[in-house]
Design goal:
TIM Barrel, eight-stranded parallel β-sheet, two-stranded antiparallel sheet
Amino acid sequence: MEYTELSNGVKVPLLGLGTFMVAPEVTAQAVYTALKNGYRLIDTANAYLNEKAVGEGLQRAYAEGICRREDVFLSTKLWPTVYNSPTAVEDTLKRLGTTYVDLLFIHQPAGDFLAGYRQLERAYQEGKARSLGISNFHGEKLTRLLEAAAVKPQVVQLETHPYRIRQDVLDVLAPLGTKLMGWYPLGHGDPELLQEPVITAIADRVHKSAAQVILRWAVQKGFITIPGSKNPDHIRDNFALFDFALTPEELEAMAALNGKKSYYEPDNATEEKCAQMHLPFER
């Protein structure tokens, strides 16, 4: 495994398992499989509705001696409809079966996101979160949050793959030392991305798959990357990134792909829908 260090000194694996769109009934097994194959970063969220299953997968791995709680970097996200709930953090920890998370995000720049971030800061001061993050923030809302934040975010989570790097957001956050965690690292499985000639040429050279080349690209860029899967073979293959490297010329060639397309374009209307979308576990 390769690591990055956050601005507060916390170390984070550069590769983890994402659980977005992984159904609760298969999440525990996916988490267990990942941990058994060497993963030590697991990412989830209130909105994925699988936090309880993530906790079950972790507990199974602990019980079998595969890893300990302190070996695992666990991240989750508060949903906008609980930003004002005084029990949001405790409820999240209870679902996960843990007393703390290693990284706690607010998930969307929607609703009363400043209240949501204050919840994160309280959790940080109380030792319930080792680091803080913001997900999908950009533009004026990012500026407002940074101006109000007493503890600046150590991580930003954004759609990130060779077709999409939000350099505008990264430039704003660079002076703070904020690290990037990328979601949709394989472009949501887009065949066009996986069949890009520059990527397939590298894959042929290193005898790896296009997906492995893309994930290795992210790791070499210093981006924390969290491919999601429930397939044991894919989980194992996605971890096989540390026995090869891309050359500077290959990284430069892949950089030319940036800006070609994205799969999620946030706007105020979309974000505010999040503020109205209550989750099943809310009363």
